[in-house]
Amino acid sequence: MGDFYQNGIITTLHNLSKRPLDEMEAELCRFAKKRPLGLILPCLYSELETEAMPNITRHLAQVPYLDEIIIGLDRATEAEYRKALKFFSQLPQRYRVLWNDGPRLRNLDDELIAEKLSPREPGKGRNVWFCIGYMLSSNRVESVALHDCDIVTYDRELLARLIYPVANPNFNYEFCKGFYARVADGKINGRVSRLLVTPLLRALKKVFGPMDYLDYLDSYRYPLAGEFSFRKDVTTDIRIPSDWGLEIGVLSEVKRNYATNRLCQVDIADVYDHKHQKLSADNDAGGLSKMSIDITKALFRKLATNGIVFNQETFRTIKATYFRIALDFIETYKNDAEINGLSLDVHSEELAVELFARNIVKAGNHFLDNPMEAPFIPSWNRVSSAIPNFMDRLYEAVDLDMAEFGDGNSDKV
Ligand SMILES: O=C(O)[C@H](O)COP(=O)(O)O
Questions:
Q1: Backbone φ and ψ of 28, nearest 5°
Q2: Could you give the ipTM of this predicted complex?
Q3: What would be an example GO MF term here (predicted)?
Q4: Strand, coil or helix: 308
Q5: How far apart (Å, rounded) are the C-alpha atoms in residues 369 and 413?
Q6: Ligand 1 contacts CB of residue 221 (under 6 A)
């Protein structure tokens, strides 16, 4: 059990009482009568073949308060889409599986390409965006949760706690982010969050002085968590990045659109573990290295829109300041690990910090060379204004795909 401290400028909802799940779910069932509840799952086909997703789906099958589950399926062939439909048919709720690589959704994407509105990069951002489009056109739910599909420690209590703040009609929150301690197998994980994001935010505050936006981001206890929930209207006019800047981008957008008393974070799990990526892969084109570059670029772009002027010198100063702060953090994490009987490999932590420091300069140079580049996906408001019946056709295309390739089992309500 944690403390009840309120840090920063958004509300933190703690786990103070180990409340029984059935009691919480009964309450959510009552809330769902006023605010129908949904779930979005951005999923890779390959994740269905891991241990995580079968466990997640078994848990979801027991959730009594969801009106709609929208699964965005990436990187699936026709045979794999068919298998996926069979896999999800164990869900008793109404569910839809978006075959993002299938001909119907690809044809729709061609129309977006022609209007220069298509999400540019493949990946989670694009997947989430199509799921949101489907959710808006289906118009069945009022509040929605979204979580990753690689959580190996999944328990349906995570979902109940994640959706509660936007489900309770007495609460005024528009957006809620999950947080947890990423500790597993005797180790402290969450390398990008701990070793890049937090020290970089502190370094930026030191270099540029106090800034509301930086204090805001620094208030999130796990800014990179893939778990968040929101009221439906949040999604019509946010522009989300299509790359790894997705999580930071969503936090920036909700800050731009809402007062901070409409935003919160909630403790969703005692333990959390997921698939770990390599530190670096394919010459920075993959792994945590690519993630760190995308996130840093997203931060620099946002600061530029807040009036900050960058040049080569500023990036060198940020790198040096970051490096010193990050090394101090390693000592903090090491001691935190030790008092808890956990292990922390100082050498690999320092290797990660050295890589991230280099990537700060890379991200900075990229920003200077391409000041107008922004991998943002257009808002759904904009798509509807450019192609008025697009959303209806997206809705129809998903139904047609499911009817053609499934066993007609999906319409349980
Ligand atoms: O949240 C993070 O920091 C990244 O997703 C990396 O996480 P990991 O260190 O737990 O793999």
A1: -65, -35
A2: 0.97
A3: transferase activity
A4: coil
A5: 52
A6: no
